Amino acid sequence: MTDTSIRTYTNENETETEDESTAVSSEQEHCPECGGRLISDDEHAETVCTDCGLVVEEDEIDRGPEWRAFDSAEKDEKSRVGAPTTNMMHDQGLSTNIGWQDKDAYGRSLSSRQRQKMQRLRTWNERFRTRDSKERNLKQALGEIDRMASALGLPENVRETASVIYRRALEEDLLPGRSIEGVATSSLYAAARQAGTPRSLDEISAVSRVEKMELTRTYRYIIRELGLEVKPADPEHYVPRFVSDLDLSDETERMARELLESARQEGVHSGKSPVGLAAAAVYAAALLTNEKVTQNEVSEVASISEVTIRNRYKELLEASDTAAPA
């Protein structure tokens, strides 16, 4: 038998195998008797046709847990799997951690020798978790992102996005010549703006370990090199936080949004700081709804000067008066 005939025979076998697998898959999708749709009956572990009632398969394997839970707390207590993977950890949460409690599985305290042994194991475990300088870099940066996000009260989705941005910057070799803290802070600032929960540069730099100038420069570089689409900050995104921090009413928040919308129609937003506009709108709305709040209180919450609030306050009221007749 020649090589050509062997290859031809093999190809014919592969074709037959593919045809058989296609036929099997089509049979599994449709009833072999009437061609109806098949559904899986988990209660009886059967696959049944919806049209004629034919039982196609029975005694199927249940791949779910063998226990039942009636609320989320009971489900978490009975679950024997680990936490889901996350980009907020350098190893995506797949490595093993040795607990800090010096107790055994029964809750009994360990002896002095066992405690020393566990401490050595923890030390080596931490060393093995970071295999090279790149992972050590990532571990430090993600810890910094988590620290700043906690200080700023940012939600978990912002931390996750910031971690992804930093990973991209690290993969594309954008860190040489820049500090880890600077790139981490820039990633968090960009993620917060993308998620619609922005923080001002002053707020970010207050919890960061880098200067405002370095933060601004690194942020522009990261945005440009990674091609991130970050829209200009909307003053309305700051309003709910300012209203909450000042303990003002929902009516004040609604009035502040109306003032900002009137200002947008009159073109007042152009070239103005969104934080200043939001702070001035909240201050003006509080006065219009007869709520007591001072410029100094708003200034402390928004981290801007009282002069800025007064200037934007006048512009917002003028824009509101102009837009009112229309």
TrEMBL record:
Region (Disordered): 1-40, 72-100
Keyword Transcription: yes
Compositional bias per record (Polar residues), positions renumbered to this chain: 84-99
Binding site for Zn(2+): 31, 34, 49, 52
Sequence repeat residues: 143-226, 237-318
GO biological process: transcription preinitiation complex assembly
GO cellular component, one term: transcription preinitiation complex
Keywords, in A-Z order: Metal-binding, Repeat, Transcription, Transcription regulation, Zinc, Zinc-finger
Domain TFIIB-type: 27-57
Pfam family membership, one: Zn_Ribbon_TF
Molecular-function GO terms, alphabetical: DNA-binding transcription factor activity; TBP-class protein binding; zinc ion binding
UniProt-listed SUPFAM superfamilies: Cyclin-like, Zinc beta-ribbon
Domain of life according to the entry: Archaea
Annotated function: Stabilizes TBP binding to an archaeal box-A promoter. Also responsible for recruiting RNA polymerase II to the pre-initiation complex (DNA-TBP-TFIIB).
Protein family membership: Belongs to the TFIIB family.
HAMAP family registered for this protein in UniProt: TF2B_arch
PANTHER family linked: TRANSCRIPTION INITIATION FACTOR IIB (PTHR11618:SF13), TRANSCRIPTION INITIATION FACTOR IIB-RELATED (PTHR11618)
The protein's name: Transcription initiation factor IIB
Species in which this protein is naturally found: Natrinema salsiterrestre
